[in-house]
Amino acid sequence: MYIQDPIQGVATFAKHKPDLIFLDLVMPKTDGYNVCSFLRNSSAFRQTPVVILTSCDGLINRVRSRFVGANDFLTKPFESKQVLEVLKKHLSKKSPES
Question: Does the keyword field hold Phosphoprotein (predicted)?
């Protein structure tokens, strides 16, 4: 599912409970850091893997992403192979009953 409005996104996440969340750092009204931090403070999403997407591959962005609770970081443009590796890495940790 693709969501452009981060405020709507949080409500959609709560309704659909995704197994993994990709967050772009650049969003209207807020940024990926704030959304990630909000998700990490919610018991419903504390264990949900969050992957930050950005075109700015700097050390500060990577460190800040980890600080707010992101599990991984992908720099745009990325290849489908990289996305598949991230999916495999984080979704293989979930048990079939989850």
Answer: yes
